[in-house]
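Long-time lurker, first post. I've been practising inverse folding by hand and with some scripts of my own, and I keep getting stuck on stretches where the structure tokens seem ambiguous. Below is the full token string for one chain I'm working on. Before anyone asks, I'm not after the true native sequence, just a reasonable design that respects the backbone. If someone could post their per-position residues I'd love to compare against what I wrote down in my notebook.
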């Protein structure tokens, strides 16, 4: 067999294995998100189901994309659609925020009752200014929240969100990706958990579910 063809098949095998490992890691994280919420809600679900009174959400203080201090009380009175991610995310985050943008459009006049929020899990790079620039690509109603490492760790804890650095470049400490939960939450006007949405749901399905609460 020609050497060139050997190299081709070797490269193909490497790509397949790497892709499989990446898919497995993402699938495992999706499963972990679902299992975590299932334990908390006591009823469990793999979709967008509401249940009892889970311990998701709580008090926090952060900065929005304008550098203004905000807290859990800032958004009381509205339904909050909240997602945790980071601006350097190559896939899950921009996809989710694009879906949320479509959801807001689909809600029409009811969109005024909903506050979509993007909370960074990467406060070291996601400054208020960077968040503000990033969010110009999505629905104008988005609030982007960041803070100190300690503040972000706290809000991750109260919302039961997993996030950790991975694939960090030794030569450039600011060049890294992050593994993180891909679940989104709907919080009520009183700040209490109502339901969750798994990654991959279409905007129409989320909008339909939201209208049940509005």
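-- Answer (accepted) --
I ran through it position by position. Result:
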């Amino acid at each position: 067999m020609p050497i060139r063809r050997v190299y081709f098949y070797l490269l193909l095998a490497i790509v397949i294995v790497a892709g499989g490992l990446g898919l497995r890691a993402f699938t495992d994280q999706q499963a972990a998100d679902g299992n975590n919420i299932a334990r908390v809600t006591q009823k469990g679900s793999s979709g967008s189901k509401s249940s009892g009174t889970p311990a998701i959400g709580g008090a926090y203080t952060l900065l929005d994309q304008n550098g203004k201090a905000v807290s859990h009380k800032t958004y009381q009175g509205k339904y909050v659609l909240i997602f945790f991610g980071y601006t350097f995310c190559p896939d899950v985050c921009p996809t989710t925020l694009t879906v949320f943008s479509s959801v807001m459009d689909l809600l029409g006049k009811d969109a005024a009752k909903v506050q979509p929020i993007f909370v960074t899990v990467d406060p070291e790079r996601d400054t208020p200014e960077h968040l503000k620039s990033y969010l110009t690509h999505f629905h104008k109603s988005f609030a982007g929240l960041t803070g100190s490492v300690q503040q972000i760790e706290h809000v991750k804890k109260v919302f039961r969100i997993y996030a950790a650095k991975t694939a960090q470049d030794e030569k450039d400490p600011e060049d890294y990706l992050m593994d993180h939960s891909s679940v989104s939450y709907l919080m009520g006007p009183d700040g209490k958990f109502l339901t969750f949405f798994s990654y991959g749901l279409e905007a129409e399905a989320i909008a339909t579910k939201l209208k049940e609460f509005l």
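A couple of notes from the structure itself: The beta strands are 61-63, 69-71, 79-85, 114-120, 143-145, 163-166, 177-180, 184-187, 193-197. The first strand starts at residue 61 and ends at 63. Happy to go over any region you disagree with.
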